[in-house]
Amino acid sequence: SWLNQDSKIDKLAKHLSAYDSRNFSVRDFSPLGGSDERQFCSPGFNLPVVQAAKTVYPPFGKFKEYHTSLDNKNFMKIESVEKSAEQLFLFLKTFELSAKNVNGKIKYGEPQLSKRDLYPTLNSPQTRKFSNSSKIDNRKQLNIILSVLSLADGKMDIIDIANFLQISVLKLSSIINILIEKKLIEKM
Question: Do β-strands 101-104 and 185-187 pair in parallel, antiparallel, or remain unpaired?
């Protein structure tokens, strides 16, 4: 809604449209036509609602069959429905992960990462491109891990961290899950 643009779900939608614009985009809320978010975002309710649509432009008014008995399955392909379901699932899964702040579980110093297989066990010129003892990625994963651990102060959520690091929350979520699994951070 116009009054609720800083909600967690709006924040995620804006982030995904910035970092994955091929699959996600944001259309500003308008009470002037079409969808049910108009009712959900009315005074008294003002719920944090997003509309999921296959196209950037709302379908209402774009084809005569919309919301009539002529709107039937001949207008869709199962592959399109499957892709939409996958994108909705990804959005909801990411929202569930990113809606809470993260806090490091180890205070006053850096946790030992090598015993958790998150840092090379040997630090030498030969391992400068390793994130751990077997992952050769120019330390991309390790650098993100170190950054997340530094930022996980309980005040930032995962979208804030992703925005700060200028990476997609989709890319960050796999690392967040690793750090949660290794009991280095927790969602609050």
Answer: antiparallel
CA–CA dist 97, 128 (Å, integer): 31
The residue written with tokens 């008014």 in the block is 61
**Model pLDDT for residues 99-132, shown as the tens digit of each residue:** 788 999 988 888 999 999 999 988 888 888 999 9
Q: What is the 3-state secondary structure (H, E, C) of 74-121?
A: HHCCHHHHHHHHHHHHHHHHHHHHHCCEEEECCCCCCCCCHHHCCCCC
**Which residues are CB-neighbours of 104 under 8 A, at least 6 positions away?**
149, 152, 153, 184, 185
Taking the C-alpha atoms of residue 19 and residue 188, their distance in angstroms, rounded to an integer, is 25
**Count of other CB atoms within 10 angstroms of residue 92:** 13
Residue 161's contacts (CB-CB under 8 Å, 6 or more residues apart) are 102, 147, 148, 151, 152, 172
Q: 157 and 102 in contact (C-beta within 8 Å)?
A: yes
Length of the chain: 188
Residue indicated by tokens 């309710």 = 45
Q: Is the pTM of this model over 0.85?
A: no
